[in-house]
Amino acid sequence: KSSEYIIETISFDADVDAIACQVGDVILVQHDIPKWGFGGRILGGNQTSLRLDREAFMQLGSVHEIRVKNSQTDEIVQREIEPVSEDTTTTTLILKDPLGFDPEPYDDVYTFGEIDKSAKPFRLIETRRSSDQTRTLTALEHIPEIYLENYDFPQIDYVANDGEIRNLIAA
């Protein structure tokens, strides 16, 4: 089942200090070129309003989110953005709910996009050394639905229906 749906593999280098995952973990990858959200650094703001280092486009009728990595705790916080009344391009985002911490200008990084599209999930399948302080990470796209158990198993009758049981010895 998975080979039908999991078709994308990525590989990238990262400094060992930047790696906080291990093989088997689901990681989020943001990249501008394939349009897996867009990212950058928080320039300022507070718990309900964030100023970004670049313009963000929000389309009327779409629901947008931001994920902010707290540079003090490494926690990634996901928040929905207040909807817009018309197509909008802005560097300031208003959050529906408080962030839970005061953003650190230039230290906190973010990903932004439509809900569930601000970054793409991948499952890490390999890490290998590329230099003393750098590792190459390889991951497969992650689609959680393929891991759901299917309990619609066919009922198979393993007993031959030839009448009586003969030569059965119970120990």
Report on this structure.
The protein is mainly beta and 171 residues long. The chain is 2% helix and 43% strand. It has one helix at residues 2-5; strands spanning 9-15, 26-29, 38-45, 49-58, 64-69, 76-80, 88-94, 109-114, 120-131, 134-141. The strands form two sheets. A six-stranded antiparallel β-sheet has the order 6-5-8-3-4-7, with no helix packed on it. Strands 1-10-9-2 form a four-stranded antiparallel β-sheet, with no helix packed on it.
Q: Can you describe this structure in just a few lines?
A:
The chain is mainly β and 171 residues long. The protein is built from one helix and ten strands.
Tag the structure with descriptive keywords.
extended; mainly beta; single chain; four-stranded antiparallel sheet; 1 helix; 171 residues; six-stranded antiparallel sheet; 43% strand; 10 strands
Helix and strand layout, with pairings?
Blueprint: H1 2-5, E1 9-15, E2 26-29, E3 38-45, E4 49-58, E5 64-69, E6 76-80, E7 88-94, E8 109-114, E9 120-131, E10 134-141
Antiparallel strand pairs: 1-10, 2-9, 3-4, 3-8, 4-7, 5-6, 5-8, 9-10
* SSE pattern, N- to C-terminal: HEEEEEEEEEE
> Low-confidence parts lasting 5 or more residues at pLDDT below 50?
156-160
Radius of gyration based on Cα positions: 24 Å
User: What topology, given as strand order, has the largest sheet?
Assistant: 6-5-8-3-4-7
Biggest sheet character = 6 strands, antiparallel
How many beta-strand segments?
10
- How far from one another are the termini? 42 Å
Shape: extended
- Helix and strand content put the structural class at mainly beta
Estimated helix fraction: under 10%
Number of discrete helical segments: 1
Percentage of β-strand residues: 35-45%
Residue-averaged pLDDT: 87
